[in-house]
Amino acid sequence: MNCRTESIVPTDTRELRLVSWNVNGLRAVAKKDPSFVEVVETANADVFAIQETKLQEGQIDLVLPGYYQTWNYAERRGYSGTAVFSREEPLRVIRQIGAPAADDEGRVCALEFDTYWFVDVYTPNSQGELARLDTRLAWDATYRAFLTELAADKPVVTCGDFNVAHQEIDLKNPGPNRGNAGFSDEERESFTRLLDAGFTDTFRARHPGLTGAYSWWSYRFNARKNNAGWRIDYFLVSNDIASRVTSASILNEVYGSDHCPVELAITL
């Protein structure tokens, strides 16, 4: 299944193509076929955001002609990390949101552009037995307040691995997974509060009843082959620009990670 949709672009506006991908280790993806650079070149996006880079500064020499590179590294080696590659140079960058338990993990790259904020996020996982649920919920609350503050200045586009399947339609097996990390009532309710704060889940808004649309699959049990997945990677936008979305897609033909990229086209 390929969830691409057709785009209808007004002639007097500029359509932006935006891509987000949890690469689960950039150095590994850079060596695969196709390589990370080839994936970026094929996508031809205005902004390409990644999560879970798992590296520190100087550990990769990534050549992407035409793109400005914005990185946020975790203090812990081989862990977390985010990056954004943008054709436009950001006016400023924010890398910490004031969440003490996770602000040293490289989880946010917020880039200000002329007409909008672009925010790449890798949300903390609640872990087995929900061992890190309190940290996760505290992060969610801080991130929600952070986005709300940005949105008071300019419209916001935020993307990344939010580590939650919001509704039952967003994972293959909701019953057995209820209460597990990524599908606990607490995490789902927290995501609802984020949407209620003034943001739209662009994929679900475009495809309200589409089943089998996932962005992450376990490496076990042939999950990807059987499409036993979860939709935990999102593009959210401020409600006041939701009508400008022209397409929202899951690029499940792209391999190299246990996640696949997600894509948004929007006129701004």
TrEMBL record:
The record marks 259 as: Interaction with DNA substrate. The keyword Thylakoid does not apply. The active site is at 122, 161 (proton donor/acceptor), 259 (proton acceptor). Its EC number is 3.1.11.2. Keywords: Hydrolase, Magnesium, Manganese, Metal-binding. Gene3D superfamilies: Endonuclease/exonuclease/phosphatase. Its cofactor is Mn(2+); Mg(2+). The record marks 233 as: Important for catalytic activity. Mg(2+) binds at residues 22, 52, 161, 163, 258-259. InterPro entries: AP_endonuc_1, AP_endonuclease_F1_BS, AP_endonuclease_F1_CS, Endo/exonu/phosph_ase_sf, Endo/exonuclease/phosphatase. GO terms for molecular function: DNA binding; DNA-(apurinic or apyrimidinic site) endonuclease activity; double-stranded DNA 3'-5' DNA exonuclease activity; metal ion binding; phosphoric diester hydrolase activity. Pfam families: Exo_endo_phos (PF03372). The record marks 163 as: Transition state stabilizer. Probably binds two magnesium or manganese ions per subunit. GO terms for biological process: base-excision repair. Residues 19-259 form the Endonuclease/exonuclease/phosphatase domain. Belongs to the DNA repair enzymes AP/ExoA family. This is Exodeoxyribonuclease III. The gene is xth.
